[in-house]
């Protein structure tokens, strides 16, 4: 039977000049960029962000500020009164937003009750369960014989962890949570309600946090090991110098110097949310949305999800090998 | 700021407040999921409109790959057309046509235009249509396409996989070269295209179309299209669902199959050098739309629909292959509870079964071999024993003979001894007798004297 020749990248490296040279030498390969863009616009994007932190740290407000609309769970809640729940709840709300023709399905996953109990042991477990459940759902769909053209992506792309602005150091709860979750999801730590810290206190706090993260081997986004090339590393190093971002959120506008700006008005002045001299909200927004969104999603799908998949499939193999007769579908101990 | 209304999941979301809260259970944890996502207006510029750019940048860094399969009889200008399309000289010398059967030759090239890097693979069918009996011509092509799908499927099913950096070799577009007879499709063409239409995007083109006159061409195209339709061959239709390109695509769809002419030689027309074929009666300009459809082909294949071709290959043809292959191996979607395992598990189980059988066969063969050796050994032993016995017998015989002879010798010796003794005795007697005779005679004489 004739066998096809093994394809080998030939030495023909042809650089074809652009369209300015007259139509006959322009092939049009770079038109694929436009084609991709069209396809992306037609399909739309999905983004799933999880916010984790104690009550009262301004999680919902920050989400609203980030996306300049009422996207947090509070906006869809029937009751206006906020009761701290006795256990951790996971509340997920989806919104369709559009900007300049680009459609996005944004899902904000809130975790009321986290860190609010007297005994907070294992409070990360429900969150881990949830994250793994999303991976499981995706895996199930991917393994189907008849599967959808586009598998709906409910995997958590990014988890914003709110650190209370104590000014000293990370609490054991913070360390534990971030240590465990940084292995399954991209964690972006932020210092919440940063308007209670002076600039010096802020810098000191940040440095302490960075040291503690390093000491505990916690790899937050952007992870050093996933830098693709020197250019990436350079950009990401700059970001790593600045995390955690000290943010202030607000969904109310005030008049400042003749302009209407988002801010918090106090007796001693108005804090402008988008002013980088006041707080680092703008950096967070740029990182999450304007520059690194695709990268965040990429790392989730090609690294975190793959790690989950490998573990899951290996589990089944050993289960099969031992012919255990265990009910195959229950979630075994993925919690760490 | 745009306010969008959307019909989401069967629920007509009319007002911004109408939401459907669905509660799902994740292993004992109640999760409220705001399904039926609502449309919310944005109060300012958020910035996610840069997403398409981010996506494009990522792709540019990664590079693209595109694989074209050219099917056509020998001499229809496949290689020349590829050279013309991509404006470069691909192969060194024309392929040898001395192999039996249809060969598929695949070559990969790295092309770059502005900041876009393309890994282009061109697969050529060598010897297609050359055989006397062409019944099996399509088989090697189908096999090749399936092999690429299989390779991708294997990678996708691996436990530790690297889909991200996998070099996709699946065929994205198949250019089928129709000979410019001017009459109709050959039966080989129909059969081959029918076998391939569910596996790959087929774009039929009329090759060397400068051999056909304009009026003949129109009739030819109509004939081809009607034959394809009546035989149920599904060729690739340029997509018309995206408004940006719907118009141009639908116009082009009407011009299928494209009548092309390829040439890498340049001729001076006016004051420009253009790609053309020069005849004594005139010059056919490749890029002149009045002369041939080359520009249309390039436009459709590369500049407008390359991404769609790749997507169709992945979401339609590959999915079909995958579905069939997995069903063939015995997987089912029916039992949701043990699904992720059944795929991997059954695959592993089947593999183990196969390995087990292989091992069993190996074992059997080994046993047989051992058995044969034993038998042969026994045989040889038997023969050896026989030889020994024979030897022993002969030896015994020999010994018996020897003994007999010795006995005989002994008896003879005895006889001889006896004889000797007798002789001696006789001699002694004689001598005695003589003496005695003397004496005896004396004695007798004495006695007589007495």
From TrEMBL, chain A:
For this chain's UniProt record, which GO biological process terms are given? cell division
What InterPro entries does its record include? G_SEPTIN_dom, P-loop_NTPase, Septin
Q: Name one GO cellular component term.
A: cytoskeleton
Q: Where is the Septin-type G domain?
A: 43-315
Q: Which UniProt keywords apply?
A: Cell cycle, Cell division, Cytoplasm, Cytoskeleton, GTP-binding, Nucleotide-binding
Q: Which domain of life is it from?
A: Eukaryota
Q: Which Pfam families match?
A: Septin
Q: What is its main location?
A: cytoplasm
Q: Where is the protein found, in the record's own terms? A: Cytoplasm, Cytoskeleton
Q: A GO molecular function for this record?
A: GTP binding
Q: Which protein family is it in? A: Belongs to the TRAFAC class TrmE-Era-EngA-EngB-Septin-like GTPase superfamily. Septin GTPase family.
- Report the PANTHER family cross-referenced here: SEPTIN
This one is known as Septin-type G domain-containing protein
UniProtKB/TrEMBL annotation, chain B:
Has UniProt tagged this entry with the keyword Coiled coil? yes
Q: Which PROSITE patterns match?
A: G_SEPTIN
Query: What Pfam family does this protein match (any one)?
Result: Septin
Which Gene3D superfamilies does this one have?
P-loop containing nucleotide triphosphate hydrolases
Keyword line:
Coiled coil, GTP-binding, Nucleotide-binding
SUPFAM superfamilies named among the record's database cross-references: P-loop containing nucleoside triphosphate hydrolases
Indicate the segments forming the Septin-type G domain, all copies.
62-328
Coiled-coil boundaries: 344-422
Query: MF terms per GO, please?
Result: GTP binding
Q: Which family does it belong to?
A: Belongs to the TRAFAC class TrmE-Era-EngA-EngB-Septin-like GTPase superfamily. Septin GTPase family.
Name of the protein in question: Septin
Instruction: Give the originating organism.
Output: Oncorhynchus mykiss
Traced from the root, the source organism's taxonomic lineage reads: Eukaryota, Metazoa, Chordata, Craniata, Vertebrata
